């Protein structure tokens, strides 16, 4: 149907829509059943088998498969018919691929759930009531209200439009917004981009507001017809994941190089080539941390889920890592730091301060209720809190006022303009122009009289008491000015309305947490400087060491100068969304990692340029949500701080896992490599190495990854931008601990071989002891990773920590013992049951890393206490930044 060629009444009739009450719930249900959900059907996913096979495309897994093949060929050539090695390798690789597949599906599900949570909603008239419903429930014939910042939820024929502009680049490729007009009718064959009376799904409203009737949903929309656009979205890899994949590849290549060297050296020493092959391959297997990518993905996915439970919805995985290093949080005031529950408490009129219920006061409020887009439902007003507060304070019903003074025109409010204007027809045929907005802006449009000067003073005084002040001005005219913008000139100021908006509970504490965590909280607001400063002072954002600056002053400051002085300010008042980008850039130029909140269409550039863009889940526009990395489901500042804490926790746990796995791998390499250099028979066989690597390593690594957050995580400074995961001495620790584990298992091997093996050329007891020590020492080493936990007061979290890590350790110990004690398994793994004395030696050696770790921890704690004391002394002299 060519809806653009019909007039609006024809469209409404064809669709059986009702412009007064909207569709009934029953009718909507019926249509939903018939036409299906308003969703684009994504292309089919790869089937399970293909996804399973794709697990084997990993570089590390390929090396393992090569190892299996070589082991198979070796057994075959040796004609020992002992294929068990290669079978075990295969079983372990398949098991690993299976775990990978399960994890991948889990991560995908988590991402899908996230997508659902941030899916757009639509404001629709159903059964006579305005409702906010998921866009997927829209049906043809629904009446939809749209405003600037909304994503168009379906194909819509406009019925009414005010100043409407729409960006349709998703469909037409044209990035400049086009004007839309409900009154226009298009001839048949008009190109998509020129259909002025239509809105198309997936485009974005950049200005104005309007209503329209849904004409097509789901795959019937224009965007649904462009099938190629629907590519399944993959979760982007985080910088850390990319870096790890790269490190993994380098480790793999390095291992292959070592293998080649050893192989050649072995040949020179006249060792059998096939034996050399096995040693080399077992070494390669030991060198590669196969479990790492899987564990990192699990840790990230689990963290994202935890964040969602705390109302922080992550849209891009990389944001999780960046969150952990956030060092500046720039937050809007209204609704994020404050409750956005406005109540009118004070009124000033040109005739002097007037009570809210006085006749003068009510006249100002009635005008503000007319120049107002809130709607009445069940005796309450819905809409912008500033506007509902004004309508509620007015004793006359808004609908009654609207009937008496019908609106003929509107110039919409925007955060940049900070005012709005409506034009109403008076009973005598003339027009009344009503403007309301920030007094400092409004006064510039008013005729200058004694009242304006008085009003400016009163505005300052009210703002200093943390009141949000709205000015109301009017002008009656016989004929409307030819240009719209001329309506907003020569107005007469009638009064100022003051309203309170109390801080959100918990914000003050969250600000304090930020400060302790080395994060700078900054307030950015469209509100008056005095109002902003009063609230910022109350919350602890503005202190005697920092200052407030206005958008106007910012305009006078060149960017370079702003960068230099950026640390002087913690409050930016009367700013427009455009200023936010400058503030982000200035902080970034000083090396800070910036989180920035935003809700409007114009906030999108700032959200994109910030390191972490945070959009408001409730009050935010679809455009802001699309541009953001994190959506705050409750629009709350404390949620950002909680998300930063989670982000730090996740990064910390990933670091622990990397630390653990790499130190274990180094231990394994050293055991085999040094054993070989010393001319000993290989201390560990390929399947033993694989077992330790893929089975007994993985569980503790996983447990470490999901550890509760350390109690002092928000008392540390943020990680530096681009800092390596190995920073802070971690690389050194990995090396030292790896050497320790390697030496211990070599020692066990030597003891077993020299004292217990009857045939040292085939050191089965030595290998069994080395195998046991390698695996058990690693289990003990896990407990070294939770270095700071003991110091904290978080007894409760310690209990869970103990139980998780404890369970992982217990399972590993049981598995490892079973392999050695249970004869059929012992035969497969080429080990033998140990005597009591041998077990005692194994236990003693395995516990050593834990003992040494404890000594190191105590030593570090002492050092830390000293340095904290020193820092405190230094802080007293340090000048504020
Ligand atoms: P924040 O940026 O922290 O959310 P804000 O809500 O005060 O702060 P804006 O919404 O940009 O920022 O509002 C800026 C100013 O515009 C307000 O201080 C107020 O004076 C005025 N204002 C706000 N809402 C309206 C409205 N609906 N109509 C007219 N003026 C308004």
TrEMBL record:
Stretches that traverse the bilayer: 56-77, 83-102, 250-271, 277-302, 658-678, 684-704, 725-752, 764-784, 805-829, 835-853
Keyword annotations of the record: ATP-binding, Calcium, Calcium transport, Cell membrane, Hydrolase, Ion transport, Membrane, Metal-binding, Nucleotide-binding, Translocase, Transmembrane, Transmembrane helix, Transport
EC number per UniProt: 7.2.2.10
Subcellular location: Cell membrane
Membrane topology label: Multi-pass membrane protein
Primary location recorded for the protein, binned into one broad class: membrane
Pfam families, per database record: Cation_ATPase (PF13246), Cation_ATPase_C (PF00689), Cation_ATPase_N (PF00690), E1-E2_ATPase (PF00122), Hydrolase_3 (PF08282)
GO biological processes: export from cell
Matching SUPFAM superfamilies: Calcium ATPase, transduction domain A (SSF81653), Calcium ATPase, transmembrane domain M (SSF81665), HAD-like (SSF56784), Metal cation-transporting ATPase, ATP-binding domain N (SSF81660)
InterPro entries from the UniProt entry: ATPase_P-typ_cation-transptr_C, ATPase_P-typ_cation-transptr_N, ATPase_P-typ_cyto_dom_N, ATPase_P-typ_P_site, ATPase_P-typ_TM_dom_sf, ATPase_P-typ_transduc_dom_A_sf, ATPase_P-type_domA, HAD-like_sf
Catalytic activity annotation: Ca(2+)(in) + ATP + H2O = Ca(2+)(out) + ADP + phosphate + H(+)
Example of a GO MF term: ATP binding
Record-annotated Cation-transporting P-type ATPase N-terminal domain positions: 2-76
UniProt cross-references to CDD domains, sorted A to Z: P-type_ATPase_Ca_prok
GO terms for cellular component: plasma membrane
Catalytic class of the enzyme: translocase
Family: Belongs to the cation transport ATPase (P-type) (TC 3.A.3) family. Type IIA subfamily.
Protein name as catalogued: P-type Ca(2+) transporter
Organism: Hydrogeniiclostridium mannosilyticum
């Amino acid at each position: 149907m060519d809806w653009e060629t019909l007039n609006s009444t024809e469209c409404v009739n064809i669709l059986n829509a009702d412009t007064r009450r909207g569709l009934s719930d029953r009718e909507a249900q019926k249509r939903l059943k018939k036409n299906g959900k308003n969703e684009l059907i994504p292309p089919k996913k790869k089937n399970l088998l293909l996804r399973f096979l794709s697990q084997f495309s990993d570089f590390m897994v390929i090396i393992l498969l090569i190892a299996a093949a070589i082991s198979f060929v070796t057994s075959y050539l040796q004609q020992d018919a002992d294929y068990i090695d290669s079978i075990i390798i295969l079983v372990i690789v398949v098991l690993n691929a299976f775990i990978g597949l399960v994890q991948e599906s889990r991560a995908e599900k988590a991402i899908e759930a996230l997508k659902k949570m941030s899916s757009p909603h639509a404001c629709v008239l159903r059964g006579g009531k305005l409702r906010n419903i998921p866009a997927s429930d829209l049906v043809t014939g629904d009446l939809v209200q749209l405003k600037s910042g909304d994503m168009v939820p379906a194909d819509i024929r406009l019925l009414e439009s005010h100043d409407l502009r729409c960006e349709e680049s998703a469909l037409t490729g044209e990035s400049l917004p086009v004007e839309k007009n409900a009154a226009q009718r298009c001839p048949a064959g008009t190109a998509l981009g020129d259909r002025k009376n239509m809105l198309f799904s997936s485009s974005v409203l950049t200005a104005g507001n309007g209503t329209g009737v849904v004409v097509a949903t789901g795959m019937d929309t224009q965007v649904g017809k462009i099938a190629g656009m629907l590519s399944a979205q993959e979760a982007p890899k985080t910088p850390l994941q990319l870096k790890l994949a790269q490190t993994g590849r380098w480790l793999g290549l390095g291992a292959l190089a070592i293998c080649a060297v050893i192989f050649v050296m072995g040949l020179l020493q006249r060792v059998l080539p096939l034996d050399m092959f096995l040693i080399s391959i077992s070494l390669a297997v030991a060198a590669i941390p196969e479990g790492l990518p899987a564990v990192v993905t699990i840790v990230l996915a689990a963290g994202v889920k935890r964040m969602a439970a705390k109302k922080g919805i992550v849209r891009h995985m990389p944001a999780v890592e960046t969150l952990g290093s956030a060092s500046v949080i720039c937050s809007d005031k209204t609704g994020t730091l404050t409750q956005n529950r406005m109540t009118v408490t004070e009124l000033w009129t040109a005739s002097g301060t007037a009570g809210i219920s006085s006749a003068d006061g009510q006249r100002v409020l009635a005008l503000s209720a007319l120049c107002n887009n809130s709607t009445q439902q069940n005796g309450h007003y819905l809409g912008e809190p500033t506007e509902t507060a004004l309508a509620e304070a007015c004793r006359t019903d808004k609908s009654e006022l609207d009937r008496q003074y019908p609106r003929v025109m509107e110039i919409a409010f925007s955060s940049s303009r900070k005012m709005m204007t409506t034009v109403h027809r008076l009973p005598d045929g003339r027009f009344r122009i009503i403007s309301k907005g920030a007094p400092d802006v409004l006064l510039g449009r008013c005729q200058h009289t004694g009242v304006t000067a008085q009003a400016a003073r009163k505005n300052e005084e009210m703002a200093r008491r943390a009141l949000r002040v709205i000015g109301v001005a009017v002008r009656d005219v016989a004929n409307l000015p030819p240009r719209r913008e001329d309506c907003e000139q020569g107005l007469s100021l009638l009064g100022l309305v003051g309203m309170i908006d109390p801080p959100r509970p918990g914000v003050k504490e969250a600000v304090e947490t930020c400060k302790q965590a080395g994060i700078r909280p900054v307030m950015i607001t469209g509100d008056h400087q005095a109002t902003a400063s009063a609230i910022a002072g109350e919350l602890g954002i503005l202190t005697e060491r920092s200052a407030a600056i206005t958008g106007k002053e910012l305009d006078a400051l060149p960017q370079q100068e702003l960068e230099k002085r950026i640390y002087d300010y913690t409050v930016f008042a009367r700013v427009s969304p455009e200023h936010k980008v400058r503030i982000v850039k200035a902080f970034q130029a000083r090396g800070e990692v910036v989180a920035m909140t935003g809700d409007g269409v114009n906030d999108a550039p700032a959200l994109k340029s910030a390191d972490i863009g945070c959009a408001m889940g409730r009050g935010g526009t679809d455009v802001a949500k699309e541009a953001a990395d994190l959506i705050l489901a409750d629009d709350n500042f404390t949620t950002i701080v909680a998300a930063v804490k989670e982000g730090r926790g996740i990064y910390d746990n990933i670091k622990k896992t990397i630390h653990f796995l790499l130190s274990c791998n180094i231990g394994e390499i050293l055991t085999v490599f040094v054993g070989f250099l010393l001319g000993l028979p290989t201390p560990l066989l390929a399947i033993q190495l694989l077992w330790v690597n893929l089975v007994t390593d993985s569980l503790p690594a996983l447990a470490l990854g999901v550890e509760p957050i350390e109690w002092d995580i928000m008392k540390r400074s943020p990680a530096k931008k681009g800092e390596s995961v190995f920073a802070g001495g971690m690389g050194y620790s990995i090396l030292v601990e790896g050497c320790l584990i390697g030496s211990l298992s070599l020692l066990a091997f030597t003891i077993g071989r020299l004292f217990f093996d009857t045939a040292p050329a085939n050191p089965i007891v030595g290998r069994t002891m080395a195998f046991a020590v390698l695996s058990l020492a690693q289990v003990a080493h896990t407990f070294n990773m939770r270095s700071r936990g003991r110091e904290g007061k978080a007894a409760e979290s310690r209990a869970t920590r103990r139980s998780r890590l404890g369970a992982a350790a217990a399972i590993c110990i049981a598995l490892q013992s079973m392999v050695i004690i249970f004869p059929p398994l012992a035969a497969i793994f080429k080990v033998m049951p140990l005597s009591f004395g041998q077990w005692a030696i194994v236990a003693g050696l395995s516990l050593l890393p834990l003992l040494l770790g404890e000594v190191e921890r105590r030593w570090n704690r002492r050092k830390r206490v000293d340095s904290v004391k020193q820092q405190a002394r230094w802080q007293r002299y340090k000048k504020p930044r």
